[in-house]
Amino acid sequence: MSSSIRNILVFAGWYPNEYNLFEGVFVRDQMQYLADYGNLYNYGISPKISVIKLMPPVDLPNFLFRRKRKIKNEEIEKEKMKIFYGQDFLLSARFQEHSRRKKLKLVGSLYKKAVAYFGASPDVILAVTLPALEVAHLLHKQLCLDIPVILHEHSVPLEMHMRTELEKQQRILALNSADAIIVTADRQIPEVKKYLGLEIPLYKIWNPINRGFLNAVPKLENKNNDALELISVGFLNEQKAIHRLIKAVSLIPKDILHLVHIIGDGPEKVRLQKMSVNLGIQDRVKFWGFQSHEEIAEQMKVCDGLVLCSKRENCPNVLIEAQYMGLPCIVTRNDASERIILPGNGISVEQDEGEALAKGITDFFEQKSSFQPSEIRKKAIQAFSPETFSKDFFDVFKQQLSSKP
Known about the structure:
Order of helices and strands: EHEHHEHEHEHEHEEHEHEHEHEHEHHH
Distance between the termini: 6 Å
CATH architecture of the largest domain: 3-Layer(aba) Sandwich
Radius of gyration: 23 Å
Strand content: 15-25%
Number of helices: 15
């Protein structure tokens, strides 16, 4: 079989859609990179990419009479790809087999549209998330396709995709049907292996930088030796543990840490704001709410470092973004964040309620001059650029194609 890839069919568990423009934006960016840079690693051939996104089923009245939110096509399809959305109605949770047949019929019709767009069958099927792999597996089995199917999984633990015993059985079966599996972090590898009964190739490929940061002007030099100005970006929930940062600020003298910018929103926001007031540091912690990638990049340029104090992570994009902008990072160790920090690009501390983080930020202040933004960015470009991401993916595609008879 030829090792060049002309047509890539993507089953996307997450993707921007008419209900949520922000769902899976990073997936759209990644597929766009494969379209934009594929010719560099695909014998000069730019592949066609088609994405199938199944929306959750709705009940019959909503399916027939709902009023869709109108979104201009260019807001969803800015990319050089063809997107096929599908949605069906659910009669009742009791009619699971009926729903399964309807889903297969819907997927089959969308597959025909993708083939018509390609003008040929796809060379590779890429499923983003385990539920999407289950759909690809059903289609593959129904049509007796001889096409490599590759899973790109971002989630930990996998049990989040296995809410019922039936769902667990079906998705473990789908997992073992994949020709190859790509994960985004080391900690996913044992998680995936515990469900595999077969020897399936496993690859780790880090997420690339988001498109919103590609053209941002990076931080090129350190500020003077004045007190630190730090930034934290993320959803304000229990997992991100921003209360640790608030507590750390209260433990650090103002001549070492002047201001922390907290960007993001979520269920913990009000509690965190009250905490900063109760600790008397409300003038040293600024809550910005949600911001675009472009706005975050501008904030990063004026800060000395980024803090991520999460309890758990997988492949935190904000650390990739910060390093790409030349910003050193201070992270709590959770078997993920510290692995994303490239050598010399930051420091890591133990998890506690803020004391270890306070010491880490103080140590960072004393070492600030040793972190050179230009060197941080140089290493990040090599590790997280769209070109690196595309090359790694096409290497997997070509290996799978070459293994087919």
